[in-house]
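Fig. S4 source data, part A: sequence.
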Amino acid sequence: MRAAVLHETGQEKLEVLDDIETVGFGPGKVKIRVRATGLCHSDMSAMNGVLPQPAPFVPGHEGAGEIIDVGDGVSGLSQGDRVLLCWLPACGACPACKRGQTQLCLAGFMNAGTPNFKRPGGDVFGFAGTGTFAEEVVVEAGCAVPIPDDVPFDIAALIGCGVTTGLGAAVNTADVAVGSSVAVIGCGGVGISAIQGARLKGAAQIIAVDPVASRREAALTFGATEAVAPDELADAKQRITAGEGFDYVFEVVGKSATARTAYETTRRGGTLCVVGAGAMDDYLRLNMFELFFDEKRILPSMYGGADVLTSYERAIALWRAGRIDLASLITHRVQLAEVNEALDQMRTGVALRTCIEI
C-alpha cells in the first residue's frame, strides 16, 4: 500500500512509497482504510524534531475512514463502520481517567514507540501511534470512534484533532465568559477553532493575531471582531482595553516568544491559555514578582481540556446546527501523492487546513 514517509528527523520532504505494510493487527485492534486526513502543525513539529517521534515514520494523526477488519475481543465496532481516529484514547483505568481528566491519559503515548508499519528496509512508525498519511492503518480499538453517516470524512478528520483542540481550549479550559475580551495569537486551523469557541461562549471582542494577511481575513469570517498583524497587537491592546489587557489570550503557536507576548497582553487577573505544542528546550521566562503581583492564570490546554469523546459529539452537534463552520476550515485539498504541496501550504501560511484525500 502507499504511505508518505519521513526517513530522518529534520527532512523537509516526505516520500510517497508503495511498499508499505501495516503491522500489529490482532486482538483488540482494528484496521482502517483512511479516506481523509488533515495536515496539522503537530505533524510538521514531529518532522523537524520539536515534538519527539522515532523515525522513519508516517506523519498524520487527524484522520477518518472505514473499518476493514476487526480483531478478536473488539466489541462495538464492525467491518464497514465509519470512524474518526482518536490519537489520544482514554484507557479508563489510570489515575487521570479516574479523575475524569481523560485528555491526560498517557496510554496512547505508549503506542508511539511501537512500529505501525514495515517495508523491506525495516520498521516504520506512525506519528502519535497512528500515521494517517497512509492508505491503511492499524490502531487500538479505542482509537476508532464511530461517526454518524451524515458526517463527511473530511469534517470528521478535523474533529479528530484541530477542531477539538481549539474549540475545547475556549469552551472547556478557559471557559470564556460572556461579554469578555479575547485575543487569539496564531490563526491556523486550531486558532480559528478557538475563535469559534470564544464566539460560541459569547465573547464581546475577539482579536485575531497572525502575520499572514489571508489568515487574518479568514478569521473575520469565523467570528473575530478585528484582525491584526503581530506588530499591531500592542496598539490593539491600548485601543480596545485602554492598555489594561485582554480578559483571555490564547497562544496557538507553541513558542516561548509568543507565549511571553500573550502573557504581557493578558490583563491582571486574566487568563492566558497555552494551546500551541512547543519544544522541550524552549523555556517561558516569568519572574516571581509578576506571577504574584499580576495574578494571571496560566492554563495549558491539552487536546481541548476535556473528555474527547464528549467533545467530538458536541462538535458534531454544533456543526449540524450551523453554530460552527468546519467546511470552510478546509481551504486546500490534495491527493496523497501531492502531500509535499500540503506541507508548503502550511509553511507559507496560505492554508487554514489542507485535506489530504486518500
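Fig. S4 source data, part B ends here. The radius of gyration is 20 Å.
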